[in-house]
Structure formats: C-alpha cells, structure tokens
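Re: the request from the purification team.
They wanted to know what the chain is likely to look like in 3D before they choose a buffer screen. I agreed to run a prediction and write the result into the notebook, where they can find it.
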Amino acid sequence: MARQTFWKGYLKLSLVTASVSLTPATTESNKVRFHVLNRQTKNRVESRYVDSVTHKPVADRDQVKGFPRGEDDYVILEDEEIEEVGLESTRTIDIESFVPRGSIDWVWYDKPHFLAPEDKVGVEAFCVIREAMKANDVVGIARLVLYRRERAVLLEPQGKGIVLWTLRYGDEVREPSAEIDDKAKVDSKLLTLMKRLVKEETKDWSPTMVQDPIQKQLKSIIRNKQKSLKKAAPAKKPAPVKSTGNVINIMDALKKSLTAEGGRKSR
C-alpha cells in the first residue's frame, strides 16, 4: 500500500533549506470503526453542541473557548488570541539545537513520522543535514505545527532518511510513582531458573507477536453479516506546496552560517 503524504514544507538548518514531506510511520486504517446509527431508520446520528441549561443547539459562530476560574465563571479567549501565540510559520522545520543521541528518555517520544526530500533539488541539502547528525551522533530539536497543535519534534537519522518524532509536553510526563528498592537481594537459585526460562522463551521478533485478536474477530463478524462492502470515496489530496528551489548554494550557505555563528560567539 502506497504511503500518503499528509504534510509538505521545508527542513531548515541555518541557511541550508530542503523541500521535504512527512508521512506517518504508523497507521490505524485497518482498524474497525463504527458509525452510530438510529436503530429504526438506520440513519447516522449526529453529534452537536447544545447549551447545558437551555438544551438548544449552539451555532458555530456562537461557540467560544473559556477557561474555568470558578463556578459558572470563565475567562473567554477568542480564536484570534489563541492563534497569535502559535508559530509564525507552520510549514518550516527549523532545527534549533542538537542533543546527544539516546539522551532523551523513551517516555518523551510520542508519534513517529518518515521525513523525506520532496524533490531532486532538496536531496543534497537533506542528505548533508542527515549525515552531519550521524557523524556527530546527535538528534535535532525543532518546533512544528502538527495535528492543530504546536509541538516540539525530534529528528533522528535512520538509514537513508530521517525519522521525525513528536515529543510529549513537559506537563504530560509524570514522575515514577514508586522507586524500586535497590538494596533488595535476589535469590541466586531463583535468578538461575528465571534466566533459563527467559532463554527458552526467547524468539526472533515478528509483527505477528502484536496482532490484535479483537480486530480480527470483528472483521470476521462483519464479513459474515455483509456480502459486499461499498468502497468509500478517496480523500482529496492536499494542494502541493510550491517549491522555492534551493536558491543558495549549499557550500556557500554553510560558510555563511559558520561565519555568522562565529561572529555571535566573539561578542
């Protein structure tokens, strides 16, 4: 199955820029999904916002975001006010800094995406950024608007490409609920038996180890209840982002970047 690009923009490191595209590394397209229907008419049931007191539907133009500060008391924020605090550019992955590879704990990792050059012009710039990260054994940190939210992202070289991970926000990661007693002793005989058991149960990794049996059974039920399924109309592809081309020679851009960096440090 061909991967569907859902984001196009630019990867930028100082003055070096490459036109790139993002593709989710995981998919839920094979997951069984249901619509809520009216049992009598078989029509789909709509979800609407209604006033909690009058129980009347609220039009989109009358819906506004409010932060609770007391009982029935809210601080109102307009959409324009919320948008003002976001990134100015939503189509540029501007690498702000680098950190040693492996220094970020797994709990911060959220969703993986495949990052790839979008055209032949950007391949050289993309590859030199990737290889420079590999040579220094680092990963890049940037910010990007994805899934309608501004997110911190991590760029990690993988093979011929780069994997972009969205990172969790600081207030989303909890401290460990309990510490392990590092002074607790392990019975040597129990450990020997456990090591033997682990060795006997060790197998080569296979995706079949993480199949969802519930989904498999649901699909079987659906196949038995319906003789044929109508295919849904394919989703419209997003309009391609016009490439500005790699106007600046990469070597010149790198020299200018290093000169500018050296000037800042000498101040």
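For the purification team: The CA atoms of residues 223 and 230 lie 13 Å apart.
Please add any questions underneath this entry.
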